[in-house]
Specification:
It contains 8 helices and 8 strands. By secondary structure, the protein is an alpha/beta fold. It has 2 domains: 188 residues, 3-Layer(aba) Sandwich (Rossmann fold), CATH 3.40.50.150; 53 residues, no CATH class. Strands 3-2-1-4-5-8-6-7 form an 8-stranded mixed sheet, sandwiched between helices. Helix 1 crosses helix 4. The structure holds S-adenosylmethionine (SAM).
């Protein structure tokens, strides 16, 4: 049963395809070296990054906190060395990987700086670390966070309003159909965006690295835009950090 689910999910993901953003990231990961060891932190189901890099001939490792995801990778991508693991305590020797990457996962980490320090530890000298973060200062995240706080603080008001709206929908149903959602569960916080200045502060203190930040421009065909000193970082809701250990 688990096997069928893994295969179904991996086929669905393949159909969703590899987006321009994913292609840009894969390009950044692969244009420095043609062979080598890569670690995917928070590998998920392994699609698209680890799968594509494995097909390109890299020796791919992955870790994830979720046993379900680790099982999916084991079943669908047998070449990949995958294990249950925590980004804050990577169970690898120092200087083990040529490249370490972490995409679409940092906003679930409880301690991102510790996770970055671990990625820096396990990557070799002259190795590359690439990870993306959600920018907490971008208006989209500011609005979302305010909404979360409002819901948390005014839960009774929220469920009462929802109840009355549903009641009205039921009354007008013979005239017009509106779907009704009766779930009154408290909202689960799905992720925490990052203040880029906290990462910049940490990275600036590390003496043995160089780094660049890219903003993701979802409107352009080439999505990664290098952020220069004259640009406003808060124009971008997603930021990609490219760190080279020297
Ligand atoms: C949205 S998925 C992204 C998966 C994959 N990187 C991708 O781009 O499709 C986030 C993943 O991070 C994993 N995760 C969350 N916290 C983690 C942690 N502290 N250490 C390792 N993995 C973690 C989750 O289990 C989940 O598989």
């Amino acid at each position: 049963m688990k096997n069928i689910y893994s295969k179904f999910w991996s086929r669905t993901r393949k159909q969703l395809g590899v987006k321009q953003y994913d292609k840009d990231l894969i390009h950044e990961l692969s244009n420095r070296l043609k062979k080598g060891k890569m670690l995917d932190v928070g590998i998920g189901d392994g699609f698209p990054y680890s799968k594509v890099l494995d097909e390109m001939g890299y020796e791919v490792y992955g870790i994830d906190l979720s046993p379900t995801h680790v099982n999916m990778v084991t079943e669908t991508l047998p070449n990949i060395n995958v294990a249950i693991g925590d980004s804050e305590y990577l169970e690898f020797k120092d200087n083990f990987f040529d490249v370490v990457f972490c995409f679409r996962s940092t906003w679930y980490f409880t301690n991102l700086i510790k996770s970055i320090s671990e990625m820096l530890r396990v990557v070799k000298d002259e190795g590359l670390i690439l990870f993306d973060v959600q920018n907490i200062n971008h208006p989209i995240h500011v609005k979302f966070l305010k909404e979360q706080v409002r819901r948390k603080n005014h839960y009774i008001y929220e469920i009462t309003t929802k109840f009355f709206k549903n009641f009205i929908k039921l009354i007008i149903r013979p005239i017009r159909f509106y779907s009704i959602d009766w779930s009154f569960n408290k909202h689960i916080i799905v992720g925490t965006p990052t203040d880029p200045s906290s990462i910049n502060q940490y990275l600036s203190k590390e003496y043995n690295i160089n780094y660049k930040i890219y903003g993701v421009n979802w409107d352009h065909s080439s999505t990664l835009e290098e952020i220069t000193t004259t640009m406003d970082v808060n124009h971008f809701d997603r930021l990609v950090y490219k760190v080279i250990k020297i």
